[in-house]
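Input:
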Amino acid sequence: DSGVTQTPKHLITATGQRVTLRCSPRSGDLSVYWYQQSLDQGLQFLIQYYNGEERAKGNILERFSAQQFPDLHSELNLSSLELGDSALYFCASSRQRGSWDEQYFGPGTRLTVT
Amino acid sequence: QQPVQSPQAVILREGEDAVINCSSSKALYSVHWYRQKHGEAPVFLMILLKGGEQKGHDKISASFNEKKQQSSLYLTASQLSYSGTYFCGTEINRNRDDKIIFGKGTRLHILP
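Output:
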């Protein structure tokens, strides 16, 4: 158990809908990262927040957005969902601001868009 | 910018050794190694920060070449528990928006 929690574990929704994925980092970790993992891809970095502020952006679509709240939990919002958005979404956390720090991954949320 | 991992997949018998490579066209600030078992989250193995660095624990070690463009992960006398997909993550920018870019992974299967 990494200490990172994600909810829900599974999500099934229809195209065009909007969903919110939630992540609580390990106690004391200020950085939260979001990744997307689909069948044939590795881990695609989406976005990083550090202590409430956006720090780095990766291949995040405009239909996706995220935020980190004062209590350091983070939410990833996915809207106008398409079939291709079906994937495993991981949240990870780390102590430091920089991406040179080891990351602890949550169990993931499996999103299925039908 | 995505690092290239090789091989894509490897099958070994328990007790055999394996080497997984991770290459970049640009010099890197750091290389990270993670292992992911089927249906589970990736788990951190180690980070290498300096050219020529070597690190390891138990029978899993890694190296980072002097030019900092290639890293190799070494699994010695592999155990069944080593099965999984190994990802390298590379950091190519050390600025405000630096990020880790992961390779596509190397699937390792250990047979008894």
